[in-house]
Design brief:
Radius of gyration: 17 Å
Structural class: alpha/beta
Helix content: 25-40%
Number of domains: 1
CATH architecture: Alpha-Beta Complex
CATH topology: Spore Coat Polysaccharide Biosynthesis Protein SpsA, Chain A
Order of helices and strands: EEEHEHEHEEHEEEEHHEEH
Strand content: 25-35%
CATH class: Alpha Beta
Largest sheet: 7 strands, mixed
Length: 240
């Protein structure tokens, strides 16, 4: 079974990290002698991905240099650069001609999600929705939960976080490219933020076009100081 291509959204400014990313992108923050991006790519290679596309923006030159001079991953890695930044949804839309695939994974550039990607793709192939999102039963433990499963689908409630929400977006999704066509969204424009699109398709006239994929183990992110510390702890414990 061939895996869909995967898009890594790595164009953000990382303002939450302050001086840590003043001259370095999140993707190249070092953990155990390797940049975070390398940890991501090695995880994706372990899960049989052979096509990766990087959506870049801030510090794109540094990331491209890393890929060009250190690409011994034996994976087809392409990239696009958004200047000015197009937003997460705009960046995906802009690279669809490059990846040339009707279906694709998307992962955030600061997310590390060790899960069964092949199983997620199989479940997506069997569902009728245009998208599937990996979710984790967080119960507000690591960050505020933002999702509840409802009947055969679920609603994504980014604006109305609360104690009644049990799950959180784990950072990996699958999409049909049709989702990024404005006529599908019944809008005159494509929203620039991926979360806006998720909000629209998760509750369009009361119907969700996003299927849930529940992961059992927690995910990690390096978009916050706390997240960096937790990911480093995870690596240290894994190597013991």
């Amino acid at each position: 079974m061939e895996m869909f291509p995967i898009i890594i959204l790595a164009g953000g400014k990382a303002t939450r990290l302050g001086s840590l990313t003043e001259n370095t992108p999140k993707s190249l923050l070092m953990f155990n002698g390797k940049p975070f991006l390398q940890h991501q790519i090695e995880l994706l290679k372990k899960n049989n991905f052979n096509r990766i596309h990087l959506c870049l923006g801030e510090f794109s030159e540094i990331i491209i240099d890393f890929i060009n001079y250190n690409n011994n991953f034996n994976i087809d890695i392409t990239y696009s650069v958004d200047k000015p930044l197009l937003g997460t949804a705009g960046a995906i839309d802009a690279c669809l001609e490059t990846i040339k695939s009707e279906y694709f994974f998307v992962i955030y550039g600061d997310s590390y999600v060790d899960m069964d990607y092949k199983d997620m793709q199989i479940e997506y192939d069997d569902c009728a929705q245009f998208s599937m999102m990996s979710i984790y039963k967080n119960n507000n433990k690591f960050d505020k939960s933002n999702i509840n499963i409802i009947d055969n689908g679920f609603l994504v409630s980014y604006q109305n976080r609360g104690a009644n929400l049990k799950y959180i977006d784990a950072g990996v999704s699958i999409y049909d490219k049709y989702v990024f066509e404005p006529e599908y969204l019944f809008c005159s424009y494509l929203p620039s933020n991926l979360k806006d699109i998720q909000g629209i398709i998760s509750n369009f006239d009361g119907v969700s076009e996003i299927a849930p994929y529940i992961i059992k183990d927690r995910f990690y992110e390096v978009g916050s100081v706390e997240g960096i510390q937790e990911f480093q702890k995870y690596l240290d414990e894994k190597n013991e």
